[in-house]
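Researcher: Please generate the 3D structure of the following complex. Treat every line as part of one assembly.
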Amino acid sequence: MSGRAERAAAWVYEGLWGVLAQWFRVPKEPPTLPVGAGEEVMSFRPAAGFLSYLKLWFWILCLLIDVGIFIIWVVIFVKSALAGVLLALPALFIAVVPDIFSFVAIHLRYDTTWYVMTGRSLRIRRGVWVIHETTITFENVQNVKVHSGPVQRYFGIANLVVETAGAGGGEGHGKGGAVANRGIIEGVANAPDLRDRIMQRLRQSKTAGLGDEDDHDLRAGAAWTRDHLQALREIREETAALRKADAA
Amino acid sequence: MDNESALSEEQANFDPTQITRPDPSLMTYYFIVAVLTTIGFFFLILPLVFKYHTLRYKFDDKGVSMSWGVLFRREIYLTYRRIQDIHVTRNIFQRWLGLAEVAVQTASGSAGAEMKIEGIRRPELLRDFLYRQMRGARGETEPQVAGEAAGEPVSDSDEALALLQGIRDDLRGLRQTMEARS
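Model: Done. Output below.
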């Protein structure tokens, strides 16, 4: 693609974004998470490799479908030249227009996927027509999975799946992660690094992450309260007095 | 960044305990949903109208309850502390109307969200309110207050150990004198 065509494509894409933001209320800015002072917020989107990965599948599918359409058209043309000539334009239309749409859709999907991570929680937002947003605190996380297929590994990306308790959705329902008990961080380059960060948080946590209503005693590892100490002191005084009385 | 500070001020003024009924625009949304099903309109609009008119929310300091239904009444109650994750879903009509579906999950085994809060104005404020009530949203692994009150844990296990050893020594001395006497 020449420089001018690329600029034109970028301009059209910008315009499309303008329409989406203005008329379809697609938020352009990354999502935020409320944080206290001094806490760091990490806001990121899938790695560049994820875009290449999506495009690879796009080109493969494109090629298969368009070759199929072309073969059908050739068969029609051989059977009846007139029908072939008449159908040439519609066939071209069917072959090209969906491709353009899905190519734009891939870019939109990439540009609307955002991940926000703080020391305490994770927020994932994705979607253009239907915008899904998931918020999970690390306190509630049960396990973290890293998935990557051979093609994903070639592009240096992996999917990070953060699961909480509960059976919501299930494996099959997980596409899009709408109302499942998990957050899927798709197509990131530093998945092991992110996993280690989250796992470190989990290890520090003293609860099972099941919404323990009263976990005061589980905190800080201190089992002695002032009352305990006071009682102990009184027993000690009592035994000391007893010993003294016995010796006398 | 001005936007952000304005939001936090709004956040401070946001009081979910005031919310008992869904916003009227929820009925508009339900109507659009019913219209979009075309042939299903008459089947769908009645339950939705009933749901809208009987939908009640009750937010208190511990949890939230939601009830609706005419023939089959449903009431859901959950505590904020047991929220596992919050999902906010906004389709295009909901965005136009300024609504969202705030789905809240607990650790129970039911598939799907336990509670889907619909028809709230400024859903992002509700989401942030729920988020702040969630476990782990604030510094909870560290003790929140220093152990000054009587019931609070103190990490003074040295004193406790010394006291216990003193008690042991006293009892041992007592036993020895008693044994010597007998």
